[in-house]
Amino acid sequence: MAATADPRARPYSGYHRVSDAGEDPELTHTGPRTPCGEYFRRFWIPVAMTEELGEHPTPVTVLGEELVLFRDLSGRLGLLHKHCSHRRASLEYGIVSERGVRCCYHGWLFDVDGTILEAPGEPAESPIPRRLSHGAYPVIELAGLVFAYLGPPELRPEFPMLDTLSLPGDDLVPYAIDYPCNWLQVAENPMDPFHSVFLHTRVTRAHFNPAWGALPVVEWHPHEDGTGIHLTNVRRWEDFIWVRTAEVMLPAIAQPPDIYQNPDREKFFPGVGITKWTVPVDDTRCRIIAYRHFSPELDLDGKGDRARVGLNKVDFVGQTGIERSREEGLRMPGDYEAQVSQGPITVHAGERLATTDKGVALYRRMLRQAIRNLAAGDEPPQLRAGPDGQVPTMAGDVIVRVPASSGDDAELQRTVGREVGRIVYETMELERAARRAEIERRVRAWLHAHVASGGP
Ligand code: FES
Ligand SMILES: [Fe+2]
């Protein structure tokens, strides 16, 4: 056979593969006035854990903006530009006051909304307080996290109250993890369930249950309203078919189901293990700010540990650069090592996307389109709440006993996965307990009609 003409396809092709291709700034740069930065500035995003608040203003950087977060002495939260409007002293040295924060340098007092309450060195008739306002953003405190909206005030959307944030019997334990790399390589990971087979199971040893090492049948479904993508991730494990639905809501919310799931019995949509936001700090740093969920329905083997969930810690292996030594990371790499090692900003032109990357490619396409739409004047779609004020979401596990038949088991998994995904999607409007019951009823009825009687 003739050798290929392309020198890059031959052995020892390093010389031909060195590239000066740049990064993908349309998706990766989020500073002020960048297209993706403008896009992020249309959504509520978490900026800190409330436990990071102390006696003094806390410096936080979000979307390339230097800010301070504080709680004034009357209990209100403020998120202000870090540098004072007068001569730019940092308000991290500001004195938290009954109302707002007072700059240490010349004593100007700023309210939580940026109103200049006092400029004490100026004459009483000074126009400064009337003519000027300090940069400030609205914030919401929820279950140990602080969320902010950094966009145009007149376009502020409703805070999306996901249905998973108020499930009965479900405890939200907040955490935050710092990553020294661009936001996108962290945010796109949940659209790639195949890494669970390798990174989390086969390559070193099982980080979770050994069943994660079964190669799944995966399909991705962009939501018609453009707000996100859900996927169905289906595995055969002994006599069970295990369907995980997971989702990404644009720009960067993800909900993996129970992280300690074990397909050892039938289960019908017990809930999610994590609700997480990937937040750009600047272009080469990001943070996951998130809730771990603890409930009697989840983690039936008791592997989780809420005492190990908090600031730069979470109760599964390989998630931070702080908890483990480099040696431990080398011996058993996790998500942190894989994603950070892609580089400060991974170079998309240097990748070879393959069949397992369909979800990553779809996510990037949807982001790029939304960013371009906004640049052309079309505001992005927002998550919509139902009549109960909650945004219905898609993530969960459905595990059913369906022994393998002599036929095409991959096709059986695909068919069951599609049907489960359809049922989970079509029941979104129901209240949670009713939805779970309806999912079980409809899945059982479908299996009875199509599988128990001889296959679909
Ligand atoms: S620099 Fe802040 S009051 Fe002067
Ligand atoms: Fe992972």
Quick summary:
By secondary structure, the chain is α+β, with helices and mostly antiparallel strands.
Count of alpha and pi helical runs: 11
Q: What radius of gyration results from the CA coordinates?
A: 24 Å
Percentage of residues in helical conformation: 10-25%
Unreliable residue stretches? none
Q: What is the CATH superfamily classification of the largest domain?
A: Naphthalene 1,2-dioxygenase Alpha Subunit, Chain A, domain 1
State the major sheet.
Answer: 9 strands, antiparallel
Query: What is the CATH top level name of the largest domain?
Result: Alpha Beta
Bound molecules: FE2/S2 (inorganic) cluster, fe (ii) ion
Instruction: Compute the number of structural domains.
Output: 2
Q: How does the helix and strand content classify structurally?
A: alpha+beta
Number of strand elements: 20
Distance between the termini: 44 Å
In percent, how much strand structure appears in the residues? 15-25%
CATH fold field value of the largest domain: Naphthalene 1,2-dioxygenase Alpha Subunit, Chain A, domain 1
CATH architecture designation of the largest domain: Alpha-Beta Complex
How would you describe this protein?
The protein is α+β, with helices and mostly antiparallel strands and 456 residues long. β2 and β3 form a beta hairpin. The chain starts with 13 loop residues before the first helix and ends in a 6-residue tail after the last helix. 39% of the residues are buried. Fe (ii) ion binds next to α6.
